[in-house]
Specification:
- The protein is mainly α and 417 residues long.
- It has 2 domains: 8-179, no CATH class; 202-409, MetI-like (MetI-like fold, Orthogonal Bundle).
- The chain is 71% helix and 0% strand.
- Helix 15 packs antiparallel against helix 18.
- The model is unreliable at 1-9, 40-51, 96-104 and 408-417 (pLDDT under 50).
Length: 417
């Protein structure tokens, strides 16, 4: 029987009320977050569109229910209803839904954004809930899902608002920041050169282009210098038998018992005597020493889950132990290697203490060390914010780019029966 001939589930009056309440509640939460993010400045009056949100919620619940039973909520339907409500509001009141004068861009696109997100979250909240017979279990499940949605929105706002403030400050002129330091608006009407002046000055005048190269070199070299011994050490601990194997396996993370601030002073003295201070090779000795133990620990745990049958078969077929590692173990361990590599890269990219203590010459500064030069009274704040964005964005992009490979590779490997 085709899906078009299947009977549509019935909805009780209580179920319809539940849909309306869920849709209205999520609309109010999302509307509040968006209205706060779009507040133009500290001097602007903050308008919370209670009436608009109430109307939106009453429409959203039934609208979502129309598509929920077809398997998914239509983003186009949600966005279309949101746009229609926004246009009706502007036509009747002459104000955008966010209290701004006139039909602003935010007032136009705000309702579709909220309806698309709220429609998706409403579908998730009402998934597998029998709207014909609202049982106690279904009610408790809805409450848990609503609380989880609030938590996700809340923590996303905590992360997104500071980053947005940093980004907005980096795209302003010095005069705009001095006139209103808490201004969250971005003036896209100004020429592109003026909009990105903070980034151009940071890269050229403060040599951040060189700092990016230095940080990339140090981070990539640290990943390589960490993975090679970590792979060999983790394989030896999990597959080979040698004296002291258990002690070595249990004492891998002993170095983390000592805070970095305790080690930096003696290392500073030793490196000064050896001529390794104020050099990048000095960092390439310290960073792997910090990351190899945790990399070895993570890979050891992953290698323990790999089947020994495949490795034994390779040894029977004439492969050496090293060939077993390179041709069998490493391909099966791609998710773990990506996780360890990303973790080590982030540590080396963001590390500040040793870079600050060991590096004195500006031409070999890493990004974290170069940020100290921007943190002064003589440097405009938009340059400091632009430098912070330059440090943060590559790591964010790298993490989200690798995430799909990590998630997709978690089920890779294994022996099929």
């Amino acid at each position: 029987m085709s899906s078009t001939n299947l009977p549509r589930p019935q909805i009780s009056v209580v179920g319809a009320i539940v849909m309306v309440v869920v849709g209205a509640f999520l609309s109010v939460i999302l509307g509040f977050v968006l209205a706060f993010a779009m507040t133009t400045s500290s001097t602007a009056e903050f308008h919370m569109p209670y009436l608009w949100l109430a109307i939106s919620g009453l429409v959203l619940g039934p609208a979502v229910s129309l598509t929920r039973f077809r398997g998914r909520t239509s983003p186009l339907l949600s966005a279309g209803i949101g746009l229609a409500i926004g246009l009706i509001w502007i036509a009747v009141t002459g104000l955008s839904p966010f209290g701004m004068d006139g039909p602003t861009l935010v007032g136009i696109i705000g309702p579709p954004v909220i309806f698309t997100l709220a429609g998706f979250m409403t579908r998730k909240a009402l998934r597998e809930v029998d709207l014909e017979h609202i049982t106690r279990d279904a009610r408790d499940k809805l409450i848990v899902r609503m609380l989880r949605a609030i938590g996700i929105i809340f923590y996303l706002a905590i992360v997104a608002v500071p980053f947005y403030f940093m980004l907005a400050s980096s795209l302003k002129s010095r005069a705009a920041i001095v006139s209103d330091p808490t201004d969250l608006s971005i003036n896209f009407a100004q020429p592109l050169g003026e909009l990105l002046v903070g980034y151009s000055e940071v890269i050229t005048r403060f040599s951040f282009g060189r700092y990016i190269f230095n940080s990339t070199f140090v981070a990539v070299a640290t990943v390589i210098l960490t993975l090679v011994p970590a792979i060999l050490g983790a394989y030896a601990v999990t597959r080979l038998h040698f004296p002291g194997r258990k002690f070595f396996s249990r004492s891998i993370l002993l170095i983390y018992m000592f805070p970095a601030i305790v080690l930096v002073i003696p290392l500073y003295s030793i490196f000064s005597q050896l001529g390794l201070r104020d050099t990048l090779p000095g960092l390439l000795i310290v960073y792997p020493a910090m990351t190899i133990p945790v990399g070895l620990y993570m890979l050891r745990s992953y290698f323990q889950t790999l089947p020994r049958d495949v490795e034994d078969q390779g040894l029977v077929d004439g492969l050496t132990r090293f060939q077993v590692i390179t041709k069998i173990v490493l391909p099966l361990s791609a998710p773990a290697l990506a996780s360890v590599g990303l973790y080590v890269f982030m540590i080396a990219w963001n590390e500040f203490l040793f870079a600050f203590m060991f590096l004195d010459s500006p031409e070999i500064f890493t990004l974290s060390r170069g940020m100290v030069a921007l943190n002064s009274q003589e440097v405009p704040r938009q340059f400091l914010m632009a430098g912070a964005v330059i440090i943060t964005v590559p790591i964010m992009v790298l993490f989200f780019w690798f995430e799909k490979y990590l998630v997709g590779g978690l089920t890779a490997g294994g022996v099929k029966g």
